[in-house]
Structure formats: C-alpha cells, structure tokens
Amino acid sequence: MKVVNPFAEHLTFLDDKTRTRRDHRKYLGLIRAVALLHQHQRPIRTLDRPGRDPVPYIEATLDDIAAANRLAHAVLGTTLDELPPQTRTLLRLVREHIAARAAAEGVHPRDLRFTRREVREATCWGDTQLKLHLHRLEELEYLLVRREGTRFVYELAWAGEGETGTPFVMGLIEVDRLRHQYDRERSGVEAEQSPLGRGTVGPVSPPGRSAETAQTPGMVRLAASIAAPLPESTSAVAVGERRSYVHAAR
C-alpha cells in the first residue's frame, strides 16, 4: 500500500551532514510505518493515471507525524551531553537572547538571523572564546549558517530540546506549527479556486481524473511527480522529500 504525505512540503529536517541526510530517509520511513500501522482505519483513495492502472493509497495524518517525531527523538536523537559545559552554556545564552528577540518582534525564533557580533554584545564573551564555541555549535548543527548578501549569519536550530537529558532530533517541525502552515496554504488555494462563493473544493483536476482524486490534498503535486508506474517497494511519502530539509547555506 502506498502512503502519501500531504504535509511533505512543510516537514523540516537538518541535512547538512551525511549522517543527518541518512536519518532524514529513516524519518520519512517512520512516518510511512506509522501510517501503515493504521491503514485499516483510513479510507483508501485512488490516484487515476491515464493509460495506467490506478494507484491505491492512504494518507499520512498529523497524528502519524506526531508519533513519528516521538519515535525519531528516541531512536535517532542525540543528547546535550555531547557538548562541553562552556559550549552548552553559550547555547543556552543564545537561546535566551533569541527567545527575547522573537517575543519582542512577534516572530518565531527560527525566523530570526543573528551575527557573532550580536552574540558577543548579548553575552559579553571574548571574541576568541566565542569563535571557538560558536564553531562547535555550528559543527554539531545547533546553529545553522546562512548567507545574507555578503555576510554570513546564524540561525538557531535548537529549541530547548533535551534539557532533561532525553535524546532529541533538532529541526523537526512542531505539529501545531505544521497544522497552521498547512491550513493556511489550503485556505489560500481554496480561496483562489472558489472566487464565486463555491463550497470547499480540492485542487483543480486535470482531464481524466476522478472527482474523488481531485479533492485529495496534495494529489496535484503527486500526479505531476509520477512519470512511470510506481514499483511496489516505492513509497509515495518520498514525494517532496527534498523540501522537507532545512538547508544551511555555506
């Protein structure tokens, strides 16, 4: 049974290291496995393909992703113990500073960018000491490096996970935030396609597709992605997986 993840374009996972790229595929596999575990409780939908056999599938849900996130933290995660004490102290200071900025500016902490100079002024640490520990946090992906014009800035990937000593995976989107982004996108699509006060509709169906398929979230992107028959071993959850990475510019 194929599994389609309508939230795939909004999922996040760090991909800056070879190990985390491998873990990303494992994470997608966890979502698929959880969805398949509940397949008998889900409606079976069909993707119609002109000239080919229809593809039956089920959809992953937000509950599936929440369960997969919990499993990922347990089986793929690391702990704060990997950080030396001073580096851990700096990480917490950076998070406190970014949390205060985010609250003042009314934005999510992951949407903020900051420089080493800003961290130096906020912490009063010496530049040499700061370079050492910021580099360590960058190497371990607690901080991501972005490029803005001619300068490099940081993004805080750590959201306070693991403070109790439990393992965690950084960069996984919170399910509540995922729900908000997905609902906002769907509302925009439905508003654009229903200018005359029509009821809720799905994406526009290309010729030959059934009404049921047209009303299935994410099926326009899935249909466009399938250029050949899907082998049984291929999971449709992989559609859009590149977009479920958080890319760190170098």
From TrEMBL:
Residues 184-217 are annotated as: Disordered. This is DNA primase.
